[in-house]
Amino acid sequence: MNKKLGIIACFLLSFIGGFFDLYSIIFRGGKFTFMQTGNLINIGNDIINKNYAGIILGIFILVTFIIGIIYAFIVEFYFKKYHKEKYIRSFLIISMIILIIPNCFFNKTETLDISSIALFGLSISGGILLESFRNYGISFTSTMMTNNIKIGTHALFEGIFYKNKTELFKSFFYLGVVISFLMGVITLALISLANINLMYAPFLGILIYFLVLIIEFKMIKMSKNLN
């Protein structure tokens, strides 16, 4: 049961990855916040085109993303130190929800201004997501699909050629991760096409995070019952 819940959590977090990356591109300065490879490409392009505002914004996003990674590392360190490992993810999910909330109160970000608070909160949450939500029994990333596609494709052919059912299952898992990410992108695109103010779109992301939080609490309860 724990494994099934973990897989559902993986798919939900991958949905979040696609949802908020397109959201940040459309509504928060035209930059990637969860996927820093894309952000670095934008920074390089802005350097060539002498778009100094874009360069500064991209660097701020990169720095805040790194702050998210550092924050997650520190939280993990102290929770492990005081033997509270089972609560790490729950605490970090609540942290990400808090960081995303400002997006519900600021209109579209065009450049570095007061609304950038929402953008930077989103970027910090992206760093947390990448640092601490990489393994639910199977390693994956909820924001970078290239590695998921590579591992999934390798697992598929490993399963076919060596008749390995475990690898076949793994390949379907990674396919689910990729599809979930794509569904997140499509959902945000549909919201945008429906002419709904994207200032309200993060509420859906927060709802998804609450679903993952419920799964975490369920898994904690199950682990206590086993002990």
| Largest sheet entry | none
Oligomer: single chain
Shape: globular
The counted number of beta strands is 0
Helix content: over 70%
- The CATH topology comes to Growth Hormone, Chain: A
Q: Low-confidence parts lasting 5 or more residues at pLDDT below 50?
A: none
How many separate helices?
Answer: 8
Q: What's the CATH first level? A: Mainly Alpha
Our estimate of the beta-strand percent is under 5%
Rounded mean pLDDT score: 94
Distance between the termini: 15 Å
Structural classification: mainly alpha
Number of domains: 1
As a whole number of angstroms, the C-alpha radius of gyration is 18 Å
**Second rung of CATH, namely the architecture:** Up-down Bundle
What are the secondary-structure elements, in order, as H or E?
HHHHHHHH
Keywords:
227 residues; mainly alpha; Growth Hormone, Chain: A; 8 helices
Nutshell version of this structure?
The protein has 227 residues and is an all-alpha fold. It has helices at 2-27, 36-48, 52-81, 88-100, 116-132, 145-162, 165-193, 202-226. It has a single domain (2-226), classed as Growth Hormone, Chain: A, CATH 1.20.1250.
What topology emerges from the helices and strands here?
Elements: H1 2-27, H2 36-48, H3 52-81, H4 88-100, H5 116-132, H6 145-162, H7 165-193, H8 202-226
